[in-house]
Amino acid sequence: MKKNRAFFWLIPILVVIIADLIILACVFKEEFNSIQPGEPGHPTGLATAFVAVVLLIPTVIISAIFIFITIVRYDKLSKHYFEDPQAGIKKKSFELFYNGGKIWCEHLDGMGAYEDEVITKFVEDIKTFSRPSISSYMIINLDKTEITEQIVNIITTNIMDMEKPIRKIAFVGVDKRWHRSFDAVKEKGIVITYFCDYEKAKEWLFS
C-alpha cells in the first residue's frame, strides 16, 4: 500500500521547523543568560532580539516555500492517495458491443495508489479476456490510478505471453511518461495508442 506516501512530503518541513526552533531557543537562552545590564561587551536585549529576528526571517521564508510546494503537490496527489479503491475494485471489466463489433473493456481506473489491488484485479481479469471467444480489441482504462513499474510490467508481460492474439489496445488515462513502457507490446504486432477520452478510444478501435 502507498496510501500515506503523501505524508512524507511533510517530513522535510517538520525537520526544518524543529531545527530552527531549537536554534532559536538556544540563542535566546544563551543571550539572555549572558545579559548583565551595564557591563560592557555583553549584548543588550535589543541585540538579542535582532539576532533572533535575523535567524527567524529566513526560517519563515524557507518554511513558507516548503509548505507552499507541499500543499500544491499534496493537492495533486491526494485524490490518488486517499481515494477509497473499493469503487474501482468493484467496477467490473466486461465485453461491450459497439458499432457492430465487440470491445473488451478492462477497468483498472479509479484505484488511486493501491498497486496490489490493481495487479490482483488485472490478473483475475486475464482469465476471462484471454479466452478465444472474447474480443481481441481492448480498452485498458487506468484513469485516476497511479501507474507504477510493477503495474506496467504485469500488464505488458501478460499480454505479450498470451497465446490469443490481441489486435488493438487503446490505453485511457496513461501519462506520457509511461507510453514508451507500454509500447513494449508492439513487439507482438499489437497496434496501440493513448487517449484521455473513453469515447474516442472506442471509436478508434474500429476506425
Short description:
This protein is α/β, with parallel strands linked by helices and about 210 residues long. It has helices spanning about 10-35, 45-80, 85-90, 115-130, 150-160, 180, 200-205; strands at about 95-100, 100-105, 135-140, 170, 190-195.
Structure description:
- The protein has 207 residues and is an alpha/beta fold.
- Helix content is 51%, strand content 13%.
- It has 7 helices and 5 strands; from the N terminus they run αααββαβαβαβα.
- It has helices at 11-34, 45-81, 86-90, 115-129, 149-161, 179-182, 198-205; strands spanning 94-98, 101-107, 137-141, 168-172, 191-195.
- The protein has a 5-stranded mixed β-sheet with strand order 1-2-3-4-5, with helices on both faces.
- Strand 4, helix 6 and strand 5 form a beta-alpha-beta unit.
- Helix 1 (11-34) packs antiparallel against helix 2 and helix 4 packs parallel to helix 5.
Strand line-up of the largest beta sheet:
1-2-3-4-5
* Proportion in helices: 40-55%
Q: Uncertain segments of ≥5 residues (pLDDT<50)? A: 1-6
* Count of alpha and pi helical runs: 7
Distance between the termini: 39 Å
Biggest β-sheet, characterized?
5 strands, mixed
Helix and strand pattern: HHHEEHEHEHEH
Rg over alpha carbons: 28 Å
Number-wise, the strands total 5
Tell me which oligomeric state these chains represent: single chain
Strand content: 5-15%
Counting helices, strands and paired strands, the structural category is: alpha/beta
The 3D shape can be described as elongated
